[in-house]
Amino acid sequence: MSDVGVRTNAILEKAEQVFAGTEALVEVHAIRERLDGPLRVAIAGKVKAGKSTLLNALVGERLAPTDTGECTKIVTWYKDGVTYNVDLFPTGSDQPKQVKFNRDDDALEVDLGGYGPEDVDRLEVTWPTSSLRRITLIDTPGVDTLNAAAEKKTFDFLDPDDTDTPADAVLYLMKHIHSSDMSLLEAFHDDTASHPNAINAIAVLSRADEVGGGRIDAMASAKKISKRYGEEKRLRRLVQLVVPVAGLLAETATTLTETEFRQLQQLAERKSNEIGPYLLSADRFIEATPETPLTSIEREQLLGRFGLFGVRQSLALVRSGNVSTSSELAAGLKERSGIVKLHHILSTLFMGRSEVLKARSALWRLDRTCAAYPDHPGSAELSLELERIVSSAHPFRELSALASLRSGWIKGRDNDLETLEQVLGVNGTLPSQRLGLDESSSNEELRAAAAEQHQRWQRLAGNPMVSHDMQTVIDVAVRSLEGEMVRLSADRK
């Protein structure tokens, strides 16, 4: 456990003593439970952005409903557990009601037991799976829709009036930059610091294959657009980066069946010039001549599962000769869909900082609890200690410095600002990521790069022309580099 984790646990133990015998103790216990649990990541975006599809791809199973049914209007939590279960929390109640559900090939079907979506605060789906052991995923209703009640649930979830948001981080799905996208992202900014913080938000260019009209090179176009969006000033202060993902293909790749693989093999056996004309549009593919492999119903089912982009990618992979099994095809499609990259980003940027993100949420919530009991003996002392932890703990100083850089409020040479962001962990907290080196770099190479960076920033820190704000950020970066140098030296022994 890191120093910030130790200090957060210690202050929670003290809070349990201070508020013993009061109603606030229940809140403190809830904070403890959250700190000890998995990281909570919300998936948000406009209606039809592909939130449920992406959630299914991340889980590796088709659980979340992707149609416009009642459950898509309710905030739904997906978490690991020992048994399969769905609990419904009525609006204004903390007492769950176990509800009936069944699962077909497409998704869970939940019986709300007479409740309407407006009467439900949230659903909690417990599903034993390794993909949910370290992370709880939260599917939120789409925004920018005619259903004002469902949209309000999402805004209230990410930006509640009198408490902290239940999410530690957010994946925001977007097809392009829209005012409603910005409004929701601004709702989920870091209220624990004086500046908005992009460290716990990632934008996903969803349905990325549609950017290029489903062409075989669509993801290359989507990557260029994502890079351009990531450089947009207003967006970069709200998200850490923008990642392109072909959500439908990602979901299908994780749930690919043997039957689908054999059907694709049949199509791939035909020459490209025979099948190619039918891949120009969905209608042509479905209504192909009778001599075309598979029935029109089978082709329509493939199209629904893969999309034209996915069918084209699948045929290219099978014809390449490098794919001979369904598992090999699934692996190739996952890579091409962008979901592998997103998994890596979640692992390095969110999970790599999970202890810090959860500690920040816990301390913010504890601070609100102290504020609600200002006259209780020991409450004021707890507030002062909370302030000392947030202001002095280096991981929190890193988040604040990184937010200041991405907001555009720190002025300096572009190269210096980009390198400082990197050192502070904008690309991840592994030594290679902070130093901009390949993951295969040796310990010696990493230590040499860290020492060189350390000397560079120390020299710049001594420049009297450097502004006070820039000096503050450099001091934090120097401390980060010193920490890496100590860890790398320890690993060498």
Report the span from N to C terminus: 21 Å
Low-pLDDT runs of 5+ residues are 190-196
| Count of separate DSSP helical elements | 21
What characteristic shape results from the CA principal axes? globular
Proportion of beta-strand residues: 5-15%
Helix content: 40-55%
For the sheet with most strands, the description reads: 9 strands, mixed
Quickly give the structural class.
Answer: alpha/beta
Give the averaged pLDDT, no decimals. Answer: 86
> How do the strands of the widest beta sheet line up side by side?
4-3-7-2-8-1-9-10-11
Strand count? 11
Rg: 25 Å
Defining key terms:
single chain; 21 helices; 493 residues
Structural commentary:
- The protein has 493 residues and is of the alpha/beta class.
- Among the domains are: 250-337, no CATH class; 363-492, no CATH class.
- It is built from 21 helices and 11 strands.
- It has helices at residues 3-18, 24-36, 51-59, 148-158, 179-187, 218-230, 233-236, 247-254, 258-269, 272-275, 282-286, 296-319, 326-337, 339-350, 354-372, 379-392, 394-407, 414-423, 431-435, 443-461, 468-492, and strands at 39-45, 76-79, 85-90, 97-98, 101-103, 108-110, 120-126, 135-139, 169-174, 201-205, 242-244.
- The strands form 2 sheets. The protein has a 9-stranded mixed β-sheet with strand order 4-3-7-2-8-1-9-10-11, sandwiched between helices. The protein has a two-stranded antiparallel ribbon with strand order 5-6.
- Helix 1 packs antiparallel against helix 2 and helix 12 (296-319) packs across helix 13.
- The longest helix is centred in the last third of the chain and has 25 residues, at 468-492.
- The chain is globular and about 80 Å long.
- Mean pLDDT is 86; it is low at 190-196.
